[in-house]
Amino acid sequence: MTIQFRSVGRWVALFAVLSLVVAACSGPGASVSGSAGASAEATATPVPEPEPDELTVLEWSGYEAEDFWTDFKSASPDTELSFEFGISDADILALMEGGSEADIFHFYTGWQQFYVDQGLVHEIDTSKLTNWDKVPESFKALGQIDGKQYYVPWDWGFTSIMYNTEHVDEVTSWDALFDPQYADHISMWNDGPAAVSVSAYINGWDETQITAEQLTQIEADWIAQKPLNAFYWSSEYVELCPNYGPLDEQVWIAYAWQGCYATSLAAGAPVAYANPDEGRNSWVGLYGISATSDSPELALAFLDAKLAELTCSNAVTLFYYGCANQEVMDAIEDPVLIEAFALDDPSILETTNFTPLVTQEQRDAWTTMWSRVQAE
Asked: What is the mean pLDDT of residues 340-344?
């Protein structure tokens, strides 16, 4: 198997849905002879109610496309699948806290602890995942809290600064997002924790130990940056990428994930993806099963199918994100994908900042800070 940019063929069935076998048992009975016979009283094991053949997934826009759950579609064609959407990790957590009826939710590293602490997530039985052995141990560990597996890793990638090489010579630091010479040609992601991360990189601060004074400075810096910003983006492919948004001339420098970079590169756009002196950021997408799901076994089958070959390949070739199935990643030969994932640079991860776990109080403070920035 080699991975190239391509339109992947529809629906190869790689995963068989787990069947529920119910055995009824009865106690030993005595023989009956006429009126003197004694009846044997059989005790039956209660038959559990079958799970509803329907799932709701709390997702990010774009992942609802069948390409990104095609193996599950092939294995369970009659399952009714619906989607709800969040626009940020903070939004997805808030929706789950608010009583979302989603069976499955999708979020990114840095938020794992919150769902466990609030009892919002179901523990994963990895013995039922047929594709689990294809997932690297380092990815599996990201889904664990206190030694228990609560999440299945799926998509992953980098965050850095994408820039238009016809207008910008080189970007060597995250502080390019604050450079006044690019006024009206900068685009930042509309997310408070991301803004805090950028500021922490620039100032050399420990992201997990941001003080009140530092947060005040971060807020002031982003308020001062606001007039330089052409627009804040929330949806990468809808608002930022050149095939869908005004990147080519309006925006020269953008906080961007590598998916947008790969899209632009494949389209022949004059773009580069920075390796800042402070390091790139890296993230991993995780799926959890809601603690209140009526269909936890069906949800587990959905997550297993997400790791199957065709679905993972589509994440790589159509969305240009990495996938936790290492066999898929090892098959990549396309030079655009190799560049996007920096697969030819074995040292890239040594200087990469992985999104850390922080407290709920910190996340809330950072989100509130960003609301004030946006209100200015």
From this structure: 88
